[in-house]
Write a structure and sequence with these properties.
Length: 342
């Protein structure tokens, strides 16, 4: 990312907040719909069991209650499976992963009467949007492109680099700015990171943002771009480095959780922290609910930090962050108005 206007010309789309709102609504609707399906499945199973018991006690003439019970049982199992699919989709919507599974659940919902059709059509309209697809694969990257596109971030994207050739964010930039290769295309990790590094270096970025890139970068790559690599991590570093941060925050009994923007160093999530945002941990929170609240503030934190970086106000000198030329000994804090403060 170079701090040079003009803004990137990207297609108009929903903001990160709008995308989050629609996905949250879909998650609730799929939870309700899945619950209804499971309840109906239980009712049908009880009816099937009742029919079987009735036939065993009092044989009847005509259509066998056992056959009817078998039909009801099959229907119950099918509806129950669809209910589990809906609940799984609700879970994945909260995590913004497995978009294909969510699309399958949306299509299946269209087979379930008026309520299912309404939910399925709404879900398909949302999930088939390019900006929503991008938020599943690299939500931070989508937020950056949105901010550049609407002028909030005065920067120019000089390249989008991905280990997944199908990543949706690649489609939001010109073909000449795309680099996408799977590591399996190379003989080993070192060869892959050498090629990735060469491509990044050729684009001459001022800052390199790891947005949705889930691989641990090797020491050689990190040292090659020392002081220019920025990452966002869903915890209040140095707490909870690595994965499963939300569940670990709950297990630790933390009163607060949040996200951190930090410089990347060879050690995992150990670089100097530039800025943080905090959210309270509720007594009834589970990992998914906490993750959703953190995700809602991650993007504003990332964009606010990048604004300072691109303006030249936030810099790095020998591993020490500097704000307006003065050492930054503690992370900047994002307030409710979206501003970063000492």
């Amino acid at each position: 990312m170079a701090s040079v206007p003009p803004p990137l010309n990207v297609p108009p789309g929903w903001t990160a907040l709008q995308i989050g709102g629609h996905l949250h609504t879909l998650r609730i609707l799929f939870c309700v719909y899945g619950g209804i399906q499971l309840a109906l499945s239980v009712v049908l199973l009880m009816a099937a069991l009742g029919g079987y018991i009735s036939e065993s006690r009092t044989p009847t003439v005509g259509m066998s209650p056992v056959l009817l019970a078998a039909i009801l049982a099959v229907a119950a199992l099918a509806i129950g499976a669809l209910g589990m699919l809906s609940l799984t989709a609700a879970n994945r919507l909260g995590q913004r992963c497995q978009r294909t599974l969510c699309l399958v659940a949306a299509g299946a919902a269209c087979l379930g009467g008026a309520l299912g059709i309404a939910l399925g059509v709404y879900a398909l309209i949302v999930l088939l949007r390019a900006d929503v697809a991008a938020s599943f694969s690299e939500p931070g990257g989508a937020a950056i492109l949105d901010a550049i596109g609407d002028g909030r971030l005065p920067a120019d994207v000089v390249g989008v680099f991905s280990d997944r050739p199908g990543a949706a964010a690649l489609q939001r930039v010109a073909p000449g700015l795309r680099w996408a290769h799977a590591p399996k295309e190379f003989s080993d990790r070192a060869a892959y990171e050498q090629a990735l590094g060469d491509a990044v270096q050729a684009s001459a970025p001022d800052w390199i943002v790891c947005a949705g890139y889930m691989r641990i970068l090797g020491a050689a790559f990190v040292q090659r771009f020392e002081g220019r690599l920025v990452n966002i991590h869903p915890s209040l570093l140095p707490l909870h480095k690595g994965l499963d941060t939300h569940a670990r925050a709950l297990e630790a009994g933390d009163a607060e959780h949040g996200a951190s923007v930090h410089l990347v160093v060879p050690e995992l999530d150990a670089g100097a922290v530039l800025a943080q945002v905090r959210v309270p941990v509720g007594s009834g929170d589970d990992a998914q609910a906490l993750a959703e609240r953190v995700l809602a503030v991650e993007h504003p934190l990332l964009i606010a930090t990048l604004q300072l970086l691109c303006a030249g106000r936030l810099t790095e000198r020998e591993g020490q962050p500097q704000l307006d030329g003065h050492p930054l000994f503690s992370p900047l804090a994002l307030d409710s108005a979206g501003n970063l403060n000492r």
